Amino acid sequence: MPSVMPSLVMATLAMCAFLARPTSALDDKQVLSHFYSNADGPNWTRGWDTDEDDVCSESYPGVSCDSNGRVSEIDLVDNNLSGSISPHVYTLKGLTRIDVSKNRITNAGWNRIEVVENMGNSVSDSIEVIKLTDNLVNSVEGLGKLNASLKELHMTYNNLKGTMPSEFFELPKLEVLAMSENALDGTIDTRIGKMDSLLELYCYGNKITGTIPGEIGELNKIQLVTFAENQLTGPLPDEIRHMGNLRTFSVHNNDAGTGSHTGPLPKFDRHPFLNEIYLDGNAFTGTIPVDFLRRLNTTNDDAITVGLKNNQLTGTVPESFLKFKNLQLDVTGNSISGFGGDMCDEQDSRDISSWMGGKVELFGCDAILCPDGYYTDTGRQESEDVKCKVCDAGTDGKMGATDCESDTVTTSEELQILAEFYLALGGKKWDEGSGWEEMSDIENPADVTLPTFTDNGVDGCKFQGVSCQDGSVVGISLPNNGLEGIVPDSFWTLPKLAEVDLSGNEVQLDRDYGFGNIGDAKSLVKADLSSNDIQSFNGIGAATSLKELYLDDSYFFGPMADELFDLTGLRVLHMQFSGVKGSIPEKLGQLQEMKNLNLYGNEMVGSIPAVIGELPILWHLDLSENDFTGELPVAAFAKLKKLAKFHIHQTGRGGAG
């Protein structure tokens, strides 16, 4: 009997050769059909009729064509796209711009461009702008394939993680790179200096650490840079002086847990166009240089914004600022002691009446800083109704005070409570404890009432993380600070305590790892207790004044308890990766003030109930990475007129969503 093996081998080789052979390039109609299918076209808000051959017709809303009848732009902003972008779209020869912002795209398709090329298609060299703002993309692998033409890449509000992707440095023509509000970490790659076509760089709100490298000074064309709200530290590099085309520079750190730049305030004296500079919330020291913004072009009336709020600056506002005609200056939260020269003299011929949006004309220099011995909530006079008020206790020679603190905490009882808090949570081992060291030698909280404390003017309002108003503690913020132990019940009796952030520590609130006596804090409106040892909802229902509650990375491992829904004033409930199980309770409908509900990464099951539609002002809802099943309650979602962001993506989880 003759062998069949040779014939079988030949047939197999022939089939492989057939499958591997290049295919002809797809036409625009075929490409858009792929795009429609990959991005869940049937569920789009404004869909396409892919049976229509003319892609330039009204059957393809959001598609624009050039004079040759080729697709030139795709604009599908906020159109309920999900899934992935077909890599074929990057072969459209006339395409210059694609905008799919505000959707639920998880894969931009760049990682499959090579597959399309192997099928006989070539990448377009006309694509200049890609906008993916507010999607769910977590990788830019393959993006370098668009290096021939890409000028703008917008990826703010996505799921990028890790260090800055190397693909960004493979785009020599890139002029705008927006990667704000992702989860990028690590340090800034020194290759950033080689992106010499950059005009605008947005990297706001990530987790980037280290210092800004000197190589950034090689970006001599750049006009806008923001690395604000990251975890950067150290001085700004001297090389910034070489960025002579800067219009806007921002490294402010106003959010808790962000970084803090240090050292003397740079002069920025070689920047003729730098009209906006935001350095707020850092730890810059010394005086404001007299030649600060020396070369700034002041021949026109363009507004100039200088944000220096909440640093450690001293001295006066320099007289050299008088050259600015229209200045918005924020130097509150420093130790500024006056104004240079006769800046605030009504007889001075150099007019600053247009400063602060014209408020200096109305309120004099109080519109910039309240005088020493006076205060407002903002540190300056904002209106006729909000004038700088006398502080009988004085403001330590500082202008622009935002509160009026007594020489010591208003009562010895509050100072005693802080002492008990310090002792119970291992204060001597805290990572940062400026001011608290006054208590390092005490063994008993009652000792703080002795003359050694009261007579020496120990001021709890100056302790690290403590904020006060009129001498009473209103806030405690000690995130990621090495606190460990059980929060004493007395802590919640601070009469004006409004905000607490103890996230990222190892604390318990007691009541069997529940919320202890949190209900005793009658003024508490915001609590961030994420990443602590909280395992039960016991006691939370008594905290009826709460408006914002953050419980990410907790250990509930059970359903949401009924008492959670007694917090009828709650506007924000954040419970990512908190071990929550069970279904969404019907009592959710009691939270009529809810605006932001985040239950990402739990183990919740069942269908999404129609009661979700009973939250009239819900703006942001994230139910992703759970085990929900069944269909979405479409009628319920139609009632959510304020809903701007809804996420329910699944990655490797069992639920169908």
Question: What features would you describe in this structure?
Answer:
By secondary structure, the chain is mainly β. The protein contains seven helices and 38 strands. The strands form eight sheets. A twelve-stranded mixed beta sheet has the order 1-2-4-6-7-9-11-13-15-17-19-21, with no helix packed on it. The radius of gyration is 30 Å and the shape is globular.
Keywords:
single chain, 657 residues, mainly beta, 12-stranded mixed β-sheet, 9-stranded mixed β-sheet, 7 helices, globular, disordered N terminus, disordered C terminus
Task: Estimate what percentage of residues fall within beta strands.
Answer: 15-25%
* Main β-sheet description: 12 strands, mixed
Helix content: under 10%
- How many DSSP E strands? 38
- Give the N-terminus to C-terminus distance in angstroms: 57 Å
- Total number of helices: 7
The chain-level mean pLDDT equals 88
Q: Low-confidence segments, ≥5 residues, pLDDT <50?
A: 1-23, 406-410, 652-657
Give the strand order, joined by hyphens, for the main sheet.
1-2-4-6-7-9-11-13-15-17-19-21
Radius of gyration: 30 Å
Structural class: mainly beta
| Overall spatial form | globular
Summarize the topology:
Layout lengths: L4 H16 L7 H11 L24 E3 L5 E5 L6 E3 L12 E3 L4 E4 L5 H6 L10 E3 L20 E3 L6 E2 L13 E3 L4 E2 L15 E3 L6 E2 L13 E3 L4 E4 L13 E3 L9 E5 L11 E3 L4 E5 L16 E4 L4 E6 L9 E4 L4 E5 L19 H5 L10 E2 L13 E2 L21 H13 L26 H4 L11 E4 L2 E6 L6 E3 L12 E3 L4 E3 L17 E3 L19 E3 L21 E3 L6 E2 L13 E3 L4 E4 L13 E3 L4 E2 L5 H5 L6 E3 L10
Parallel strand pairs: 2-4, 3-5, 4-6, 6-7, 7-9, 8-10, 9-11, 11-13, 12-14, 13-15, 14-16, 15-17, 16-18, 17-19, 18-20, 19-21, 20-22, 26-28, 27-29, 28-30, 30-31, 31-32, 32-34, 33-35, 34-36, 35-37, 36-38
Antiparallel strand pairs: 1-2, 23-24, 25-26
